[in-house]
């Protein structure tokens, strides 16, 4: 699977920048929350261009370089297969991201197969701090890396790149840290590059952060058919081999399941998401007492199918507000919009009680809207779960309640 890297592979990127996407604070104002990461990336590339003979466009890679028509999964897998150095941009969100964990694991697979805690981490991983993260809050894969961040400056260690690039008084610290990181990337790319290795699909690799689990569970149920069990009049373009691969907002850039976006957003907020199809979660969702807060991602087409409607009878009941429903309506999906009236009638008939709840989101028009709305949906489902969750007293005999006593007593 791997091969030694000969000298002169000038068009292979020196580094792959792996970072956690930050959702917009307000999806309506058009602000790009990740523009500062791109600024850092471009300045690193400029430094590497001056320090080496690398041709234009080959200094580094980050996923913002994807263009309309690109297949994002293939492009990222291709660059993870050929980059010399992997640069993870540490932040609390980074280690909660399933996407970032898979990029890390796929890069390791090139050199020695699946990540093994008993083996040394390749020198070709050169981490950088975006925002500070405690060592104890990192997964084992990151804790195993021996990297002296102090070489990039004490202010950088204290604030991370985000902190020192945002404040004018730290400009010289930012310039020094950026140059030092670029030098480190070049040095490692020349002395200890990762051998070439073909990664056909990085999303099929288990995350390197599997040991890093948030404490708050939440259930994410995908209510959608798979491509082999579609309604008779539905095209398979938005579906996959299993319901969890449903991608209602699929574009020419390729498919990424909506459930994957939900997992990243949930983990970034300290939740431990369990993703599954309705068949896997129906029993737990129908239970009288809640087992965890839950979000149901509903494909309107699924509610036209008899087996799905039967499974929802025990879920669509009043007073079960720890289960929240979200319904994507992609206005660019012409087949769905042509059947809008019929699909909405099926939704009302099947999930009328859930859709009438104030927490429900019956119309999610875009992927950006989904990313913006889901965090609040998770929060509301959790609040209702905590109101209804069973409380278990500690083991052992009961004790009298303590009381305050006066000085005379």
UniProtKB/TrEMBL annotation:
Pfam families: TIR_2. Residues 226-248 have a biased composition (Basic and acidic residues). Residues 15-112 form the TIR domain. Residues 225-252, 388-409 are annotated as: Disordered. SUPFAM superfamilies: Toll/Interleukin receptor TIR domain. This is TIR-like protein FxsC. It comes from Microtetraspora malaysiensis.
């Amino acid at each position: 699977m791997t091969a030694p890297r000969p000298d002169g592979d000038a068009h292979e990127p020196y580094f792959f920048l792996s970072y956690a996407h930050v959702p917009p604070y307000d999806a309506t104002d058009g602000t790009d929350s990740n523009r500062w990461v791109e600024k850092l990336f471009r300045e690193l590339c400029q430094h590497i261009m001056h320090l080496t003979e690398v041709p234009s466009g080959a200094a580094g890679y980050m996923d913002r370089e994807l263009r309309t028509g690109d297949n994002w999964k293939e492009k990222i897998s291709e660059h993870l297969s050929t980059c010399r150095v992997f640069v993870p941009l540490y932040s609390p969100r980074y280690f909660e991201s399933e996407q970032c964990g898979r990029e890390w694991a796929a890069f390791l697979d090139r050199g020695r197969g699946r990540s093994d805690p008993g083996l040394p981490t390749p020198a070709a991983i050169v981490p950088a701090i975006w925002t500070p993260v405690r060592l104890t809050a990192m997964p084992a894969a990151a804790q195993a890396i021996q990297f002296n961040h102090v070489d990039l400056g004490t202010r950088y260690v204290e604030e991370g790149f985000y902190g020192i690039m945002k404040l004018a008084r730290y400009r010289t610290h930012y310039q020094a840290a950026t140059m030092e990181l670029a030098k480190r990337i070049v040095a490692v790319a020349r002395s200890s590059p990762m051998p070439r290795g073909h990664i056909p699909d990085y999303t099929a690799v288990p995350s390197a952060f599997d040991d890093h689990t948030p404490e708050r569970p939440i259930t994410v149920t995908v209510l959608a058919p798979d491509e082999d069990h579609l309604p008779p009049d539905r095209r398979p373009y938005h579906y996959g081999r299993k319901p969890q691969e449903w991608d209602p907002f699929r574009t020419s850039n390729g498919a990424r399941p909506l459930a994957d976006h939900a997992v990243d957003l949930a983990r970034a907020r300290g939740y431990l998401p369990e993703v599954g199809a309705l068949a896997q979660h129906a029993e737990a969702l129908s239970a009288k007492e809640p087992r965890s807060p839950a979000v149901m991602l509903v494909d309107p087409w699924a509610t036209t199918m008899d087996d799905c409607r039967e499974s929802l009878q025990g879920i669509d009941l009043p007073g079960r507000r720890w289960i929240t429903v979200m319904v994507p309506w992609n206005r660019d999906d012409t087949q769905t919009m042509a059947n809008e009236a019929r699909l909405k009638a099926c939704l009302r008939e099947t999930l009328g009680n859930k859709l009438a709840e104030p927490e429900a989101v019956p119309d999610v028009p875009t992927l950006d809207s989904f990313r913006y709305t889901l965090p609040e949906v998770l929060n509301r489902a959790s609040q209702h779960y905590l109101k209804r969750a069973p409380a278990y007293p500690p083991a052992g005999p009961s004790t009298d309640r303590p009381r305050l006593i006066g000085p005379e007593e």
